[in-house]
Amino acid sequence: MTKKLKVHYQDRINRTLKIPVKVHFAVKELAQKQSISIAEFYDQIIYSFLKETTDAQNQISYVFPPQDAKRTNLYLREKTLALIQKLSTRDCAPGNLIIFTAIMDYIKSNSVLTD
Q1: Separation of alpha carbons 56 and 48, rounded Å
Q2: pTM score
Q3: Given this model, what pLDDT does residue 1 score?
């Protein structure tokens, strides 16, 4: 039996990623404040990072998740996954590393976590 996804997840593809719990809950809280789904919020912050990076041909300093990070399911749109693939090919970096770096760039540049 196939598990049915919520309506706002149906046009998305699942990617499993290790993210620190405090980062995931911070992003979840920001999504709730903006009254959008967490899937949409993750997709927005990852897509905007990738768009800026691939368009400007910027060199990326990749960030690795800590050992105690927990697996999280992200539901991303195909256009976001296409940019991840493009950057992955350009930099010879794994897609999950690119996604995690995009999330942490957002967290850092918006001072979401203070500790």
Answers
A1: 12
A2: 0.83
A3: 43
List of E strands, the chain: 13-19, 70-76
- DSSP lists the bridge partners of residue 74 as 15
For 63, residues 6+ apart whose C-beta sits below 8 A from its C-beta are: 97, 100, 101, 104, 105
Contacts with 91 (C-beta within 8 Å, 6 or more apart), sequence order = 60, 62, 98
Question: Rounded mean pLDDT of 65-93?
Answer: 90
Q: How far apart are the first and last CA of the chain?
A: 43
- Phi, psi for 112 (deg, rounded to 5): -70, -45
Q: Which amino acid is at 15?
A: R
Whether 97 shows a pLDDT value over 90: the answer reads: yes
Helix/strand/coil (H, E, C) string of 28-48? HHHHHHCCCCHHHHHHHHHHH
